[in-house]
Amino acid sequence: MTFELAVCSEMVYTDRPLIERVRTIHDAGFAVEIWGWTDKDAAELRATGASFTSMTGYVTGDLITVDGADDLLRTAEQSIPFAQAIRCPSLNLHGTGLGEGGIPVRPVEVVTGDMWLAAERTLSRIADLGERHGVTFVLENLNTEVDHPGTPFAKAADTLALVAAVDSPHLKMNLDLYHAQIGEGNLVELIHRAAPHLGEVQVADVPGRCEPGTGEVNWPFVAGALADAGYDGVVAMEAFASGDSDLALQRFREAFTI
């Protein structure tokens, strides 16, 4: 089993300009992920020769309000040309728009039934948008205990339920195992339940959100579980380097080479 290994360029080699980080990650043999696109130049990214596997697929908006859903669709559509320009197949979404420090722009403490139905309708529209343009949107789970308090539909069980309800090849789940370990645990069972709907997997160790091998998770065992579940797609290290970034990438590769 071989995964496509990618590294988030926003979180390693942070003393260098982003474009240099992209080149370094590419030269080390990994694909590259980015976050927001509005401050980046597509031609400059393409010139690095890197393969891009994921980027943020919206600028503003949310899943549950009328205006927020329209804004999400509008900015998601604006994101597609950039994704196509850098040949990035996956556009990442969250349960709501995130502001400074990852805090939700519109925090939600209690998610109602009406909110669930609104989110499903919005994501169905997103899937239709992806189908029209030949791209795939992925919905990422987050944690509310440490990094993103007030995010609706944050848990992996929530994002999985929404993706399964929409049931479109143009809407998949981005299973972030760092967030899932904090919010839910039981990663192996979660992987097997989510496997049919996975578009991407992201990893960072707990606590600290650094590279595999720095915390409590047995990542080689998790990698085996992904393989046993039949997953052979992108596994991305969305993690800070605990020290040397070269070593962080090496540890990540070792954990997910099976």
The figure for the number of domains is: 1
Helical residues, percent: 40-55%
CATH class: Alpha Beta
Arrangement of strands in the largest sheet: 1-2-3-4-5-6-7-8
Approximate strand percentage: 5-15%
Total DSSP helices: 9
Named CATH topology? TIM Barrel
CATH architecture descriptor: Alpha-Beta Barrel
Using DSSP, what is the number of strands? 8
Short description:
The chain is α/β, with parallel strands linked by helices. 40% of the residues lie in helices and 15% in strands.
Question: How would you portray this structure in words?
Answer:
- With 258 residues, this protein is α/β, with parallel strands linked by helices.
- The chain has a single domain (4-255), classed as Alpha-Beta Barrel (TIM Barrel).
- It contains nine helices and eight strands.
- The chain has helices spanning 18-27, 42-47, 66-85, 113-133, 156-166, 177-183, 187-194, 219-228, 245-255, and strands at residues 4-8, 31-33, 52-56, 90-93, 136-140, 171-176, 198-203, 234-237.
- β7, α8 and β8 form a beta-alpha-beta unit.
- α3 (66-85) runs parallel beside α4 and α4 packs across α5 (156-166).
- The mean pLDDT is 97.
Question: What is the fold's blueprint, element by element?
Answer:
Blueprint: E1 4-8, H1 18-27, E2 31-33, H2 42-47, E3 52-56, H3 66-85, E4 90-93, H4 113-133, E5 136-140, H5 156-166, E6 171-176, H6 177-183, H7 187-194, E7 198-203, H8 219-228, E8 234-237, H9 245-255
Parallel strand pairs: 1-2, 1-8, 2-3, 3-4, 4-5, 5-6, 6-7, 7-8
Helix pairs in contact: 3-4, 4-5, 7-8
